[in-house]
Amino acid sequence: MTRPVLWNYDLDDASYTVRLMASLAGVDVDLRAVDVYPGAEHHSPGYLARHPLGRVPLLEDGVVQLRQVPAMLTHLARTGPRGTGFLPADPVGTAAVEDWLAFAFRDWLALSAARSASIFGDGVDLDPLRAAAIAALRVAEDRLVAQSLLGSGFVAGSAASVADIALFPGFALSRDSNIDHDAFPALRNWARRIRALEGFVTMPGIPDYH
Amino acid sequence: MTRTDDPVALNEWYAVASLDEPGAAPQTTRLLGEDIEIGPGGGVRSLATGEALRTCEKWGLLFASFGRPPRALFDIAEARETDRRFVPCGWITLRASGLRVVENFLDMAHFPFIHTGILGTEPHTEVPQYASEIRRDVDEVWATNCTFFQSQIAATETGGDFVHLTYRVPAPFVVMLYRVCPSAPDRLDAIALFLQPMEETLCRAIPLMWLVDTSSTHAELLRFEQVIFMQDRIVVENQRPLRLPLEPRHEIPTRADGSSVAYRRWLKEKGLRFGTTAGAEAAA
Ligand SMILES: [Fe+2]
């Protein structure tokens, strides 16, 4: 059986989300480095033939070709030997996971935008981007506080789900945008729980220590 | 932000753009506190005063200066060897003084802790004795005979070994590393890091590499350097103060930071203020 192929870029947060999910779910993937910066290889004809939207990551698993990160996360959770725990089976749990997964790929992208501008920006005004990122962090912080009152350590239940994995990189990498984690104690504790999961991996920007 | 009045900083050359970047439209960036515009033809002017800056082109980069640099840009002999792989790595922005970035680049002691599994591994944390000096004839800082145990010294290597390194600071905001090439021990890989000081505590950096490596893909070479650089970025952004102090430090210098001591002394002799704690006092 051939292994899934992940076309990715090491410094890209979305690529890391998929590498993390694969590792947690116990799926071995073949990594292909795409020279996104400075080479703009994701806009090259060869890459566009695979991915007309010109983005990383791209996950190919046999006949399955995925271009959207949420679909990659659920696919890896469904197919990996350690993956099923990341997808609740009951309707209530599923509803919460889908809601927070949508949050992760909408409001939470403010964190990604602030980080890109901090790393690759050329003197752009970071304050509005950072304010939007902090607003998103507050929503997640409040949710985790409410969850802890119910005895749940994760955004959608008492076990880590694909939604938690989708959210983790944005928080963990927010130091790249000079956002202080001290204001978000519930997120810090939650991040510690994710770091303790079997198969957890880091990326540049996320220290191994904590 | 306004332009610094530090004459030492104003009279240096700074990389401000990659030559393959300037498109049809002008691009704006910042240098020494002032916004500048890079025109499609490679001309650079101040957006505050409209005056044109001196410019020159080298190694695929556009250099600019507000002042009158007393000498031409230094030479990188390896850049003239035609069989080398030239790998420009792309600009990365850092919220710190560019001088801090140079100092971090010179420091080998952090390898096992920050670049764990790549440039170093515990328990191999010792930095063997090396020599650092200010070379008066060329007005540069050099650190020679540096060795360090590294677990993966280049994109081609999988096993660990002692690497032999030489560090060179040819200008206050440029730092270089020469590394005995694992696949051709009689030659040196050359890596240069150019800093564009935008503000006292904000800079952009671009690493350029001239490598002997013939087997790695371009993407692999880039990846290796970028991963390391992003690890350094966290370290540098979290140092306090963000500006570089030039006063002799309270700690007793260890052998490991000999090159840092020489670099700071050299900057102090030059009278550079921009990006140093002395610059902060002058501005206050
Ligand atoms: Fe480093």
Topology:
The complex is a heterodimer of chains A (210) and B (284).
Chain A: E1 5-8, H1 13-25, E2 30-33, H2 45-50, E3 58-61, E4 64-66, H3 69-79, H4 91-104, H5 109-120, H6 127-149, H7 162-172, H8 185-195
Parallel strand pairs in A: 1-2
Antiparallel strand pairs in A: 1-3, 3-4
Helix pairs in contact in A: 1-3, 1-7, 4-7, 5-6, 6-8
Chain B: H1 7-10, E1 14-18, E2 27-31, E3 34-38, E4 44-46, E5 54-58, E6 61-65, E7 85-88, E8 92-94, H2 98-106, H3 111-114, E9 131-135, E10 140-150, E11 161-171, E12 174-181, E13 184-199, E14 202-211, H4 218-237, H5 258-270, H6 277-283
Antiparallel strand pairs in B: 1-6, 2-3, 3-4, 5-6, 7-14, 8-14, 9-10, 10-11, 11-12, 12-13, 13-14
Bound molecules: fe (ii) ion.
Question: What does this protein look like?
Answer:
The complex is a heterodimer of chains A (210) and B (284). Chain A is α+β, with helices and mostly antiparallel strands and 210 residues long. Chain A folds into two domains: 5-83, Glutaredoxin (3-Layer(aba) Sandwich), CATH 3.40.30; 88-195, Up-down Bundle (Glutathione S-transferase Yfyf (Class Pi), Chain A, domain 2). Helix content of chain A is 48%, strand content 7%. Chain A contains eight helices and four strands, in the order E-H-E-H-E-E-H-H-H-H-H-H. Chain A has helices spanning 13-25, 45-50, 69-79, 91-104, 109-120, 127-149, 162-172, 185-195; strands at residues 5-8, 30-33, 58-61, 64-66. Chain A has a four-stranded mixed beta sheet with strand order 2-1-3-4, with helices on one face. In chain A, helix 1 (13-25) crosses helix 7. Chain A is globular, with a radius of gyration of 17 Å. In chain A, 45% of the residues are buried. The model of chain A has no long low-confidence stretch (mean pLDDT 94). With 284 residues, chain B is of the alpha+beta class. Chain B folds into two domains: 1-73, N-terminal domain of TfIIb; 76-283, Alpha-Beta Complex (Naphthalene 1,2-dioxygenase Alpha Subunit, Chain A, domain 1), CATH 3.90.380. In chain B, 20% of the residues lie in helices and 34% in strands. Chain B has six helices and 14 strands. Chain B has helices at residues 7-10, 98-106, 111-114, 218-237, 258-270, 277-283, and strands spanning 14-18, 27-31, 34-38, 44-46, 54-58, 61-65, 85-88, 92-94, 131-135, 140-150, 161-171, 174-181, 184-199, 202-211. In chain B, the strands form three sheets. In chain B, strands 7, 8, 9, 10, 11, 12, 13 and 14 form an eight-stranded antiparallel beta sheet that branches. In chain B, a hairpin with a 2-residue loop joins strand 5 and strand 6. Chain B is globular, with a radius of gyration of 19 Å. Chain A binds chain B through residues 10-11, 33-35, 37-39, 41, 118-123, 175-176, 178, 204-205, 207-208, and chain B through 18, 27-30, 35, 88-93, 95, 116, 198, 202, 204, 217-220, 222-223, 226-228, 230-231, 233-234, 237. Residues 104, 110, 114-115, 232 of chain B line the site of fe (ii) ion. Fe (ii) ion is lined by residues 104, 110, 114-115, 232 of chain B.
